[in-house]
Amino acid sequence: xxxxxxxxxxxxxxxxxxxxxxxxxxxxxxxxxxxxxxxxxxxxxxxxxxxxxxxxxxxxxxxxxxxxxxxxxxxxxxxxxxxxxxxxxxxxxxxxxxxxxxxxxxxxxxxxxxxxxxxxxxxxxxxxxxxxxxxxxxxxxxxxxxxxxxxxxxxxxxxxxxxxxxxxxxxxxxxxxxxxxxxxxxxxxxxxxxxxxxxxxxxxxxxxxxxxxxxxxxxxxxxxxxxxxxxxxxxxxxxxxxxxxxxxxxxxxxxxxxxxxxxxxxxxxxxxxxxxxxxxxxxxxxxxxxxxxxxxxxxxxxxxxxxxxxxxxxxxxxxxxxxxxxxxxxxxxxxxxxxxxxxxxxxxxxxxxxxxxxxxxxxxxxxxxxxxxxxxxxxxxxxxxxxxxxxxxxxxxxxxxxxxxxxxxxxxxxxxxxxxxxxxxxxxxxxxxxxxxxxxxxxxxxxxxxxxxxxxxxxxxxxxxxxxxxxxxxxxxxxxxxxxxxxxxxxxxxxxxxxxxxxxxxxxxxxxxxxxxxxxxxxxxxxxxxxxxxxxxxxxxxxxxxxxxxxxxxxxxxxxxxxxxxxxxxxxxxxxxxxxxxxxxxxxxxxxxxxxxxxxxxxxxxxxxxxxxxxxxxxxxxxxxxxx
Length: 628
Prior knowledge:
Elements: E1 2-5, H1 13-21, H2 27-48, E2 61-66, E3 71-76, H3 83-92, H4 98-105, E4 129-137, E5 144-149, E6 154-160, E7 166-173, H5 183-194, E8 201-209, E9 224-230, H6 247-257, E10 267-273, E11 279-285, E12 299-303, E13 306-309, E14 324-328, H7 338-343, H8 345-368, H9 370-390, H10 392-398, E15 404-405, E16 411-412, H11 414-421, E17 432-437, H12 444-452, E18 457-459, H13 465-475, E19 479-483, H14 489-492, H15 505-518, E20 524-529, E21 538-541, H16 544-554, E22 570-575, H17 579-586, H18 590-608, H19 613-626
Parallel strand pairs: 2-8, 12-14, 17-18, 17-19, 20-22
Antiparallel strand pairs: 1-6, 2-3, 3-7, 4-5, 4-7, 5-6, 8-9, 10-11, 11-14, 12-13, 15-16, 21-22
């Protein structure tokens, strides 16, 4: 038996590995199975080009847990190693970057992203093991080797009687890591990290029910047999060509990724590029809610079918993190920090490619089946609107397929909307005014008032609409979005002609003073306006600018500092041409005038959805008194 010392000058390398990476100690299994997979795929390549004179066969990787002896075994049937290769790859190469590792990470936190970066993948075993053994036999005609190390720089190496080609790693689990001796824990990790590895992974056996033999009675139990429990799918859908997959197969793969998701995806996008980087994957558009946060972290990132993370910010554009699916790229390191990803040039190219691919798919869906696209709009609009806000290149492409629905259920592209409303909804300053509602029920009276003028009213109700409108107004000339309850209908789109008031300036001022006295505790700004006599006598509006800035502040970004915490601001508009307003002015007793003002105000508040609780109860009681 030979012994030796691993070529590293710092004796506490193993404690450092454990210390720095302890928060990620479960990745030891991912690393060791990745190594076993690499060894198997290398053998496949060598046999295919005739360099390895052995039969490749149908190799698998096996994981076994021996709870009594506190051991985990990872066994492959891959390329194996000779004694010289063990010395080179285990004792030397794996530690070639140890000095750099220590210098760079001695003051680093736990998210340093060390494993893999310095060839330390195999040594991640020492995060959970107090001793590690390697028993390996090369595909070459050379003796098998047994290597052993107890977590110090000392190792031993001796011949082994192993007959089969491949490598077995034996981990002697440390006392502080006995959770990894539980079958359920190992199965959880295998499913998490290795669910789609390209080589079958066996973990125990399972019972399989066989067809009943001919002539068996109905109540005879079906025969069973024990078979290998293969926990992974070595040929997931994203590794295949789109032409080889049916819609049903795409849906089946979605169910495989998300077994607890019962709704079908709306559609999918298959990514497949080999220049200037390698990337494959499938993204699915699920049905989305208006909650921007609950949806995230549903895309899984793989490197050569090895799970890396489901936090894909920096790789996938932020607006697409609400989608689901898989991205696989060998160009992304297995272990990297988020800051590394955000700064990496290749990653930025990947992000741009994904953005372009998604935009192209949406363009195609819109052109090929607009009716279906319109039906799905409410389920996908949050992603598209978010993308238009955050990615200028996506904004340019989305301008052709982004839809603007009306309160009547019609859908327009911006170009179509502009053509439809230009004649009727251009104001005196030659600005196109787009009217919209955010709640069809709550703003019903305002919508109806606008429709009587022949105006088209959009229904824009996603949480980021205020931000999107701001972007549209700055990117297009002479455009303004105004919510239908921002002013009375004659002021929403200001034309040259103005109505003449039936009340004199003196009468208006007198009535305004009395209304201000009645409403002084309610915070309304009183405006006396000459409108059509058929318009409501009292109308409550919210100024567009202040309300929009407040909404933008509440949904993050934009707006003015602190505006999200400001109280709501309302205007109370009095139609000086309405018969009821004249009646209030001419009522002799102050008590009755106040009663009429309160009743009219409450009707306006009721129309706006602002009358609630005790005030609503008092309004109902007062109304009954008035009709006795």
